[in-house]
Specification:
α2 packs parallel to α5, α4 runs antiparallel to α5 and α4 runs parallel beside α6. This protein is α/β, with parallel strands linked by helices. The longest helix is centred in the N-terminal third of the chain and has 40 residues. It has 6 helices and 18 strands.
């Protein structure tokens, strides 16, 4: 009887062991299957090195842009001990001058770096990923350009604005006033004697987050054009010579505005301008 009980216990232990072995095998099989499915949907690991590279590039460029104002401040402290009243009276003017030097150095230094190393992206569709070379350049330019763009939108920098845009790859003709906001300078072209009004926006890209794509298109504005305040121009648009775009109008993607015509509305459509004479009521 005792031997029979021992055999039953041994058989029970074997059954339990077999049961857990099967469960373990099933668990491992499911784990491997899920891992393989994850690898199929996520073919590549996250490009951590490019995140680090991007952060280092932005950090170094903006940090080095502070060098002129730090050097100027150090030189001023050599001559001014701020132990007299008139030294303190000069302080607001010194701060203003330092701020002007900082803006100028950040614009010129970041623009110069992008010009020297030709950090420019090309028109076309690309994946919104650091692995895509064109997208990676776009992200670098956006990281460096966006803070500077905000500065020149707020503070008047005069002719320095056109110099900065040209360093970023924008083509600007003679006697041209670039107001408003240029989102993508390196794919934007302005002809001669053209005026862009305040609050107008020119987009050179569209971000499709659902598909994970960036659509980049060049924008060309011809000679003797007038872009009204508050108007919007989308990627791929072309404004031929002598075009007048009314305030608040929207030029849709890849739209062509024909030479010598006036456009208004959403989307922009040609309008006929009537000229009244003295005899008209």
């Amino acid at each position: 009887m005792q031997k029979k009980l021992q055999n039953q216990k041994a058989d029970g232990f074997k059954n339990l062991k077999w049961h857990f072995s099967n469960k373990f095998i099933m668990f491992m099989w499911l784990h491997v299957t899920m891992a393989e499915s994850r690898n199929k949907t996520k073919k590549h690991p996250m490009p951590i090195t490019k995140y680090i590279l991007l952060a280092v590039i932005v950090f170094l460029i903006f940090s080095l842009g502070f060098f002129p104002v730090v050097f100027t401040g150090k030189m001023l402290l050599y001559f001014l001990d701020f132990d007299q009243l008139w030294h303190w009276l000069l302080l607001p003017f010194i701060i203003y001058i330092g701020f002007a030097i900082l803006i100028t150095s950040e614009l010129l230094f970041s623009g110069f770096i992008m010009w020297v190393f030709k950090i420019r992206y090309e028109p076309g569709e690309c994946d919104y990923s650091l692995r895509d070379k064109n997208a990676f350049k776009w992200i670098i330019v956006c990281s460096l350009y966006t803070p500077c763009r905000k500065i020149i939108e707020i503070f008047p920098v005069g002719g320095l604005k056109n110099v900065y845009y040209r360093l970023l790859g924008m083509k600007i003709g003679k006697n041209t006033l670039v107001g408003g906001v240029i989102k993508d300078p390196c794919v934007t072209t302005f002809g001669d004697n053209t005026t862009m009004g305040e609050y107008a926006i020119i987009y050179g890209h569209i971000h499709n987050r659902e598909k994970g794509k960036i659509m980049i298109g060049s924008v060309r504005v011809g000679n003797n054009c007038v872009i009204g305040a508050g108007s919007i121009i989308m990627p791929g648009a072309v404004l031929q010579d002598n075009v007048v775009l009314a305030a608040g109008a929207v030029v849709v993607q890849n739209q062509v505005l024909e030479k010598g015509k006036t456009y208004a509305g959403i989307p922009a459509k040609e309008i006929k301008m009537s000229i009244k004479t003295k005899g008209d009521n």
